[in-house]
Amino acid sequence: MAFQRACALADLTPDRPLRVEVEGVDVAVVRHGEEVFAIEDECSHAAVALSEGDVEDCTIECWLHGSRFDLRTGKPTGLPATEPVPVLAVRLDGDDVLIDPDTTLGDN
């Protein structure tokens, strides 16, 4: 698979997740500072949408039980989650945010 357009950069509010679907994969896209991250939009602990959670210090929090995941690696930084969430490759092309749903980053 190749990079697919997920949204416009202008669609992203800093530190507010945006839920998008790319090639059948639900993704939470987050603009944090000058960086853009894409993490699969499902908590590995409770199977709820991470895009409904809060972003702080480059982590995203699951709204249901409070697990936090590093946006760079997908690794949990707080219980009750113990399994990582896949982080997808992101590329900016002008004002477009492109995501490759088949390329995961880190140790996922």
Rg, Å, rounded: 12 Å
Q: Tell me the CATH topology.
A: Rieske Iron-sulfur Protein
Uncertain spans: none
| Order of secondary-structure elements | EEEEEEEEEE
| Amount of beta strand | over 45%
**Oligomeric assembly:** single chain
Compute the number of helices: 0
Major sheet: arrangement of strands: 1-10-9-4-3-2
Largest sheet: 6 strands, antiparallel
Walkthrough of the structure:
This protein has a single domain, classed as Rieske Iron-sulfur Protein, CATH 2.102.10.10. Helices cover 0% and strands 48% of the residues. It contains no helices and ten strands. Strands 1-10-9-4-3-2 form a six-stranded antiparallel beta sheet, with no helix packed on it. β9 and β10 (96-105) form a beta hairpin. The two termini are 18 Å apart.
Layout: helices, strands, pairs:
Layout: E1 4-8, E2 18-22, E3 25-32, E4 35-40, E5 55-56, E6 59-61, E7 68-70, E8 76-78, E9 87-93, E10 96-105
Antiparallel strand pairs: 1-10, 2-3, 3-4, 4-9, 5-6, 6-7, 7-8, 9-10
Give the structure's gist in a few sentences.
Pfam families: Rieske (PF00355). It comes from Nocardioides aurantiacus. By secondary structure, the chain is mainly beta.
Provide the descriptors you would attach to this structure in a database record.
48% strand; 108 residues; mainly beta; iron; Rieske Iron-sulfur Protein
